[in-house]
Design a protein that fits this description.
Keywords: DNA-binding. It holds the Pfam family HTH_3. Helix content is 53%, strand content 12%. It is an alpha/beta fold and 285 residues long. The protein folds into two domains: 74 residues, lambda repressor-like DNA-binding domains (434 Repressor (Amino-terminal Domain), Orthogonal Bundle), CATH 1.10.260; 144 residues, Endonuclease, Chain A. It has a six-stranded mixed β-sheet, sandwiched between helices. Strand 5 and strand 6 form a beta hairpin. The chain is elongated, with a radius of gyration of 23 Å.
Length: 285
Amino acid sequence: MARNRPPGYHTRLLSRALTTLRNRNGMTQDEAGHQIGIRPQKVSRIELGQLPDILTLRALLDIYNVPVSEYHEYEVIRQKAAARHWWNGLRRNDETYLSMEHEASRIRDVQTLHLPALLQTDDYLTTRLTTAAYPPSTTRIGAELQALQHRCRLLDEHPVRLDALIYQPVLDAPLSRDQLTHLLRRSEQDNITIQVVSHRQFHAGMDGSFTLLSFPDGSEPDLVYTRDPIGCRFTQDRLPVSNLRRTFRQLAKSAMSPRDSRSYLMKRLTEVSADSARAREIATS
């Protein structure tokens, strides 16, 4: 049976493939359902993101004239969609986003209040959570740290490209030496570009933070994700995605170059190191 959870990347991929096959064969949902003995409403749900069981999938492929030798391709997609991942069962409201992030080929991240999630250290995230207006429980903090560690593996274990634009005040806020060192180390990776957006470069058209995902499957539209105190939202609607893609390009063009951004990070690390040395001198005097 299909699992009752938001459709992730591979479920959506399979749904689109089945919809394309049905249309290519000139069938309505009513006709497809009648031929394999299921209600047309179920065909509709499958095409909207409900994962079909293996027998229903094979029945649909049969009436859509897919050669048996090609079933395996669709069954593999279904198997990946049905598999449990680290984000399943965590009772997070961003499960679908996490599944999409996991399959992205490129992540463009603009952050105006915090460091990009994939560039945060455990200590940075812990401080953020414990100093929030309504701090989560210790158990929840542990779960968030575990999720961060899983997500950060994308940068090392998957061929994903990260382009991060960070608003300068985020870097001017108190940051640890470990966090700044971590940013510098990440900036050296071939698949990561970090750029600093200064006060002067930050324009009125930029409303806040957002993340833009692109995918290796050309039929999967880019996805924009935002998070605020009310919750998290994502859309693949053409207009907002297009607008924010353009906003990202404009910001990246006017931001400090990756080389200058790295120099700025090194400058901040020197300042923080000097402040720490002075604090130790005062403490021992």
